[in-house]
Amino acid sequence: MNTKQRAVLERIKRLEDEIAKAREYLETGAHAEWHGFRASFLVKVKDGTALPPHPDWVRNVFIPRRERALQQAEKALERLESK
Predict the structure, then answer these.
(1) Is 63 helix (H, G, I), strand (E, B) or coil?
(2) Closest-CA residue to 15 (of 53, 47, 63)
């Protein structure tokens, strides 16, 4: 396995972990403080603590984006393996 394949496999693993955390957040509320949900330019703060992400945003924006990125990474891995 070359370094490109290893990098794509690591990206796939990371994306799968992110999707699992998002689904767990929607089910139980766990991982509300996870840094992956935080915007890099704006963090909403109330009473000195950061607000958790809105469940609709996680369901309708975060998860679909990660699933699309996962599909692209899987396609890239298939192309690398076919070479």
Answers:
(1) helix
(2) 63
Who has greater pLDDT, 43 or 17?
17
pTM score, whole prediction: 0.88
**R_g over Cα of the chain:** 16
Residue in 71, 82, 60 with CA at minimum distance from that of residue 15? 71
Q: How many Cβ atoms are within 10 Å of 14's Cβ, its own excluded?
A: 15
Separation in Å, CA 49 to CA 33, 46, 62, 82 = 10, 6, 22, 49
Per the CB < 8 A criterion, the answer to whether 66 and 22 are in contact is yes
Mean pLDDT within 11-26: 97
| pLDDT > 70? residue 40 | no
